[in-house]
Write a sequence for this structure.
């Protein structure tokens, strides 16, 4: 009996290690894709990291850090001569590993879902803000290390300005991607034994709203912001990107906010003129407050509707 148990453990170990390797490889590929399609104003990699740390069991977190860290080490080695050894050391540290001391106690204290199965949106927003602060801090310190390696080469760069820009970009990057992933995860869970198919997607009211009026409206306003020569009109068009988000939030709760927020964030990023564009930063602040508030209200409304459901039936 003992020999049989030991044999099962020996056979199980390669499978367990294989799972970690597969997760590390898959995360590394997806991370690189998110990095290449990210805008400086909206760091989609923060959303990917946060979604993985919220959804995956803690035992798989080292695999995530490995998948993110290996490309960073390679890039740091290649660029160490240009930016210096201190920069290379800092640039080699996977940001997701710096998040783990924050996310682990949060998940232990407040699981992703409450006892009734509803998403804990306040915990998610708190994790988003904490992760954004950590991301901005390590990014700014890494920038300072590069500046110190070649003093005077970039005299116009202000680490303080970049810290707040990265803080806002990381926060919005997380709000751009993480809620969408969580909303899709929740909708997949709601399917139960039903199969996900094109017909199911097509008959989704949220999908149709996005296709028929949200995307055309956002595209029109982004085009106006890009082509106009009037700064007031450009800023008005950027602010108008919020209206489709509010419309989806009204019709579909926090799921609508998640999808609309991602679309509006990408549209705003297309109109931006650099990381420290003051006009874009102003709209980013408004968008950050709007998304945070509507996500909170949408999740709260969903919980209240679920609580009132049995009374109405």
């Amino acid at each position: 009996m003992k020999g049989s148990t030991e044999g099962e453990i020996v056979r199980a170990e390669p499978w367990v290690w294989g799972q970690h390797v597969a997760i590390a490889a898959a995360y590394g590929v997806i991370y690189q894709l998110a990095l290449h399609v990210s805008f400086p104003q909206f760091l989609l990699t923060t959303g990917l990291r946060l979604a993985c740390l919220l959804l995956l069991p803690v035992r798989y977190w080292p695999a995530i850090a490995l998948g993110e860290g290996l490309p960073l080490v390679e890039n740091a080695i290649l660029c160490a001569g240009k930016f210096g050894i201190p920069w290379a050391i800092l640039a080699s540290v996977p940001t997701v590993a710096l998040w783990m001391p924050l996310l682990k106690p949060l998940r232990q204290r407040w699981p992703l879902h409450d006892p009734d199965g509803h998403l804990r949106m306040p915990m998610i927003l708190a994790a988003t803000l904490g992760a954004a602060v950590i991301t901005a801090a390590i990014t700014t310190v890494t920038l300072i290390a590069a500046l110190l390696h070649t003093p005077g080469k970039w005299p116009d760069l202000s680490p303080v300005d970049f810290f707040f820009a990265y803080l806002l970009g990381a926060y919005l990057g997380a709000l751009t991607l993480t809620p969408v992933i969580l909303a899709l995860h929740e909708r997949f869970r709601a399917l139960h034994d039903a199969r996900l198919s094109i017909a199911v997607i097509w008959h989704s009211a949220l999908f149709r709203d996005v296709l028929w009026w949200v995307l055309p409206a956002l595209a029109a306003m982004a085009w106006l912001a890009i082509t106009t020569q009037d700064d007031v009109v450009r800023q008005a068009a950027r602010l108008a990107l919020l209206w489709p988000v509010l419309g989806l939030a009204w019709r579909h709760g926090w799921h609508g906010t998640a999808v609309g927020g991602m679309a509006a964030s990408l549209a705003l990023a297309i109109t931006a003129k650099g990381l420290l564009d003051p006009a874009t930063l102003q709209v980013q602040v408004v968008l950050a407050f709007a998304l945070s508030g509507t996500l909170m209200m949408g999740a709260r409304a969903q919980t209240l509707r679920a609580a009132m459901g049995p009374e109405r039936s």
Q: What stands out?
A: Residues 131 and 249 are 25 Å apart (CA to CA). Confidence is low (pLDDT under 50) at residues 1-11. Residues 2-36 form the longest helix (35 residues).
